[in-house]
Write a structure and sequence with these properties.
Blueprint: H1 3-13, E1 17-21, H2 23-29, H3 34-41, H4 45-52, H5 61-71, H6 75-78, E2 79-83
Antiparallel strand pairs: 1-2
Helix pairs in contact: 3-4
């Protein structure tokens, strides 16, 4: 296996993690709409929609703080780190 093949192998075999946002679940539990949350917190509706659909790639700390304050929850209830399964394209 070449050096670059080995590096690719390592990248593919490293456990991947992802940050899961539970805003949709929390909003459902509290019977909130994105429009209500946006109005009450002054957070951009597009930002909330991306968090709700888990398509956001970055979030300002101020937004996280506002959401946690509004929902009266710690950050750990809004976001969770979830490990993905090991991925391998090579058979041993």
């Amino acid at each position: 296996m070449s050096f670059f093949g080995f590096i690719s192998f390592l990248k593919l075999n490293m456990p991947q993690v992802e940050l899961k946002c539970h805003l949709s679940k929390l909003m459902g539990e509290n019977r909130l709409k994105i429009s209500d949350l946006s109005r009450d917190t002054d957070i951009n509706r597009g930002t909330l929609t991306r968090l709700y659909n888990e398509t956001a790639t970055r979030v300002d700390l101020e937004v996280i703080e506002q959401l946690c304050d509004y929902l009266d929850i710690p950050v750990g209830e809004l976001f969770k780190v979830q490990k993905r399964k090991w991925i391998s394209l090579y058979n041993s």
